[in-house]
Design a protein that fits this description.
Layout lengths: L10 H8 L7 E3 L4 H10 L3 E3 L12
Parallel strand pairs: 1-2
Length: 60
């Protein structure tokens, strides 16, 4: 599990680190192209947190 607010001073370094993981699913508290890119390069899913989001639906 990786918990991040999406802010970083070195985006390339974070992307290189993310590539080491097989699949990262991202649940963002606000729209973030950076976090969306991380989910995409690892084959994971990107979702934005909403009052109706069911966390367990991420595994379906």
């Amino acid at each position: 599990m990786v918990i991040s607010d999406g802010r970083t001073a070195d985006a390339e370094r974070v992307l290189d680190l993310a590539r080491r993981f097989k699949r990262l699913h991202v649940v963002a508290t606000e729209r973030s192209q950076f976090l969306k890119q991380i989910a995409k390069i690892t084959g994971g899913r990107y979702r934005e947190l909403t009052p109706t989001l069911d966390i367990f639906s991420l595994h379906s």
